UniProtKB/TrEMBL annotation:
Alphabetically ordered keywords of this record: Iron, Iron-sulfur, Lyase, Metal-binding
Source species: Croceibacterium mercuriale
Protein name: Dihydroxy-acid dehydratase
A GO term for molecular function: iron-sulfur cluster binding
Class of enzymatic activity (EC top level): lyase
Residue ranges occupied by any Dihydroxy-acid/6-phosphogluconate dehydratase C-terminal domain in the UniProt entry: 368-576
Lineage, opening ranks: Bacteria, Pseudomonadati, Pseudomonadota, Alphaproteobacteria, Sphingomonadales
Annotated signal sequence range: none
């Protein structure tokens, strides 16, 4: 057992307060009632929470129900007492109108649990897209010793001998259905083939991205993020994670010691090299704000854009989660970047060692899946951060621009990085689905598709709807992607080079609200600009008319949380957090423990 020599355990305020024996007895009796002993609660052992995100409602994280047994064994072996409790579930594919609405709700709930109960440290069980940032955000706010454990990806999907990857296969199957190459049953079979086991998306979608970044931030044990959910190594990682958190409590190693500016810059570098999701900037901005680190959106361009794509995973590449793990996972990627001086080696991690010490000797086991730095899949693979007269900022994931797209839009020898075209504007995904195949929209191969009303306020929660397939007629002619632009998000599993996360959104009064179908928009990737081309003064005239008409109309709230979140949520550029929540930092140090409850 690890002795705590540095400071009293937080849980002593509940179980060991001899100045207030009434309350101490009250706290103790109910935790004794299921069989814990006084010795366990009062023997100086740290109480370790297991923040459980798995449930029947959240299949991606459900395997954590099994892993929790091994986490407990690790905690117990190291001399701690485990207390497992549920976190508000967030299932990306199940929650309507969007799981994006629930990240801040889970965050809010977990902050209350970590602060308000007798916990000395916590294991964060992460997985499906928003669960990882929600839990890291809460750990950042409370700032008690915390370690994250990824649930791991599903095994590789396979259909008739071809790898089928989560999400990515859906976009492909939609095209096949639109052109009549498969029917409904064929569609479902093809999509389901990508989900052969427990675990999260096996592509480099938002889940694999965020768990890789949790490891790059230093918040999970080295090498643990990429282990597929059903592998025995995953069980071992759960056990080691449980053991380690007990030591972290003794060492008082906290999120603020680990998630420093250097750690976030490391995560940005890793995100470029793995071909990570466009949701990552939103979530990292949110975590950074809660831990008190400045991370302006332009860091993604300054620090991330020049970094090459090393990891050959769908949607940017070919392979899937099992391949990524066998090729070396995050440590192999970090080690490759380290050799180029692109990693802050001194950043502290949960095992009490630095990122440099953890990854220096990691090697790539399969150079097809993780490429050496000298032989990348693509140079300059990070995001472009775009500005212009339609929004303050938006992002573009350049690593997924197809050869076809490049040829059509980016091959003018006089102006190879810029193009312009007329827009067709959709107000929400229903409008898009209703009209995309209607010839009356006049969409052709020069059209830029615009989606608005899809942001944190408008949707609400920001939906993954900006990647829009072209009309079926154009797909039949071999046009698989049109430029897309919008104030929503897109799935990390999508291979569309959309311009997305536009902030401010139309519903917050952003200029996207002033666009009219037929307007011409110019996209200049070298200058990093997206501009609506209008005669002088016309934008201001439209603004005046728009404001006089009462702003952008969006559907009303359907639940209390939708209304509450809409009233306080910020824009994606700054993490779409609950504005005001960021002023509560290092809560466990500033406030210690809350008042007694009786
Ligand atoms: Fe849960 Fe992709 S849907 S990880
Ligand atoms: Mg998604």
């Amino acid at each position: 057992m690890v002795e705590n020599t540095t400071r009293p355990l937080r849980s002593r305020a509940w179980f060991h307060n001899s100045d207030n024996i009434d309350m101490t007895a009250l706290y103790l009796e109910r935790y004794l009632n299921y069989g814990l002993s006084l010795d366990e609660l009062r023997g100086g052992k740290p109480i370790i929470g297991i923040a459980q995100t798995g449930s029947d409602l959240s299949p991606c994280n459900r395997h954590h129900l099994v892993l929790a047994e091994r986490i407990r064994e690790g905690i117990r072996e190291a001399g701690g007492i485990a207390m497992e409790f549920p976190v508000h579930p967030i299932q990306e594919t199940g929650k309507r109108p969007t799981a994006g609405l629930d990240r801040n709700l889970a965050y809010l709930g977990l902050v209350e649990l970590l602060f308000g109960y007798p916990l000395d440290g916590v294991v964060l069980t992460t997985g499906c897209d928003k669960t990882t940032p929600a839990l890291l955000m809460a750990a950042a706010t409370v700032n008690m010793p915390a370690i994250s454990l990824s649930v791991g990806p599903m095994l590789n999907g396979n259909y008739k001998g071809q790898r089928t990857g989560s999400g990515t296969i859906v976009w492909k199957a939609r095209e096949l259905l639109a052109t009549g190459e498969i029917d409904e049953v064929g569609f479902i079979k093809l999509v389901a083939s990508s989900a052969p086991s427990t675990g999260y998306c096996n592509t480099m979608g938002t889940a694999s991205t965020m768990n890789s970044l949790a490891e790059a931030l230093g918040m999970s044990l080295p090498g643990s993020a990429a282990i597929p959910a059903p592998y025995r190594d995953r069980q071992e990682a759960a056990y080691l994670t449980g053991k380690r958190i007990v030591e972290m409590v003794a060492e008082d190693l906290k999120p603020s010691d680990i998630m420093t500016k250097d750690a976030f810059l490391n995560a940005i570098a890793v995100n470029s090299a793995i071909g990570g999701s466009t949701n990552a900037p939103i979530h990292l901005a949110a975590i950074a704000r809660h831990v008190g680190v400045e991370l302006p959106i332009d860091e993604w361009q300054h620090h991330g854009h020049k970094i090459p794509l090393l990891v050959n995973l769908q949607p940017a590449g070919e392979y899937l989660g099992e391949d990524y793990y066998r090729a070396g996972g995050v440590p192999a990627v970090v080690s490759e970047l380290m050799k180029q001086g692109l990693i802050a080696e001194g950043a502290m991690t949960v095992n009490g060692r630095t990122m440099g010490d953890n990854c220096r000797n990691a090697v790539i086991e399969d150079e097809e899946v993780i490429r050496p730095f000298e032989r990348p899949l693509l140079a300059d693979a990070g995001f472009l951060v775009l500005h212009g007269n339609l929004f303050d900022s938006a992002l573009m994931k350049t690593s997924v621009i197809s050869a076809e797209f490049r040829e059509r839009y980016l091959s003018d020898p006089n102006d190879p990085e810029a193009f312009e075209g007329p827009v067709v504007v959709f107000d929400g995904p229903e409008d898009y689905h209703h009209r995309i195949d209607d010839p009356a929209t006049g969409i052709d191969d020069t059209t830029i598709l615009v989606m608005r009303g899809a942001g944190p306020i408008g949707y609400p929660g920001a939906a993954e709807v900006v990647n829009m397939r072209p009309p079926a007629e154009l797909i039949k002619q071999g046009i698989h992607a049109l430029p897309c632009l919008g104030d929503g998000r897109q799935s990390g599993t999508s291979g569309s080079p959309s311009i997305l996360n536009a902030s401010p959104e139309a519903a917050a009064g952003g200029n996207l609200a002033l666009l009219v179908s037929g307007d011409r928009v110019r996209i200049d990737l070298r200058q990093g600009r997206v501009d609506l081309l209008l005669p002088d003064g016309e934008l201001a005239e439209r603004r005046a008319a728009f404001d006089a008409a009462g702003g952008y109309a969006y559907p009303g709230s359907q639940t209390p949380w939708q209304e509450i979140q809409r009233a306080v949520v910020g824009q994606m550029e700054t993490g779409a957090i609950l504005e005001g929540a960021e002023k509560y930092q290092r809560v466990a140090q500033v406030h210690g423990v809350p008042r007694d409850n009786h």
